Amino acid sequence: MFEGTYTAIITPFDEKGVDYKSFEKLIDSQIKGGINGIVFVGTTGEPATMTEEEKKELRSFALEKVAKRVPVIFGTGSNCTLSAVKNSVKAQEEGADGVLVVTPYYNKCTQNGLYLHYEAIAKECTLPMIIYNVPGRTGVNILPETAGRIAHGIKNVVGIKEACGNLEQIAKTADAIKGTQLQLMSGDDKLAVDIARLGGTTLISVASNVLPKEFTEIMAYCRNKDFDKADALLNKYSDFVDLLFAEVNPIPAKYACSLLGLCKNVLRLPLTPMSDAKAKLLREEMQRLQII
């Protein structure tokens, strides 16, 4: 349902709040770059430091400016199941094409708790749902058998965004969901081609904030089973991607976008601007690649 490259888009801020002038510029640059879809208010969009009113305004703005040119997915996750249900229902009422729901963080629920969490959301929200496995941030890991259980038991869960970093586990998840409606998706730019080889259909990308055209091409090659070309293009940007994660996401991505003139380099505490030493390395790599 959601194939290709989807950008986990940053949220531009200024000293007053969300910088909507920059946000429009960023959205247009994504669509001109050929991106297949955009994920708003996911982790990369810093929703944890935004008010509910800000997020509501952002979602409305996003839908208006995208204007159905590409699918729009909203991040609606929470470590409170009732809140995740409420957020997902709002996204459906507002007109989103799908929702991205991270595992409940901090609570460290059981695997059965994970299943019941997603089941509760799916009972109230009929939008296509992508579940998001990023144990390094949440402290919870969707095990392959749980992914299989979800695939067979919750039909409007259409994707799993994998960012566990463990290809052996991801391969087992690919086997567990094989033949179901559940698409395997990469939440890790560096593993996009490896996951595609396992049957992955989609990359939800941070790097595409800066390089929408190139990271869309990578998944287009994968879709055509031309993995050598996909590898070659990804390898070209390997050091750049490493530097995008030299500090916690989205700190480097926002700095890189500011170098392109797409936004200001403004984050909200507890996130802080990229350190001078690492910013210098990222800037020099972007210059070497002729991105700037």
Describe the structure.
This protein is α/β, with parallel strands linked by helices and 292 residues long. It has one domain (4-226): TIM Barrel. Helices cover 47% and strands 13% of the residues. It is built from 13 helices and 8 strands. The protein has helices spanning 20-32, 52-66, 81-94, 111-124, 135-138, 144-153, 167-177, 192-197, 212-223, 227-236, 238-244, 251-259, 276-288; strands at 4-8, 37-40, 72-75, 98-102, 129-133, 157-162, 183-186, 202-205. It has an 8-stranded parallel barrel, surrounded by 6 helices. The model has no long low-confidence stretch (mean pLDDT 98).
Throw out a few tags for this protein.
292 residues, single chain, TIM Barrel, alpha/beta, 13% strand, 8-stranded parallel beta barrel, 8 strands
User: Could you estimate the helical fraction of the residues in percent?
Assistant: 40-55%
> What's the CATH H-level homologous superfamily?
Aldolase class I
Strand content: 5-15%
Q: In one word, what is the shape?
A: globular
Order of strands in the sheet with most strands: 1-2-3-4-5-6-7-8
CATH architecture verdict: Alpha-Beta Barrel
Order of helices and strands: EHEHEHEHEHHEHEHEHHHHH
Low-confidence stretches: none
CATH third-tier fold name: TIM Barrel
* Termini gap: 34 Å
Rg, nearest Å:
18 Å
Largest sheet: 8 strands, parallel, barrel
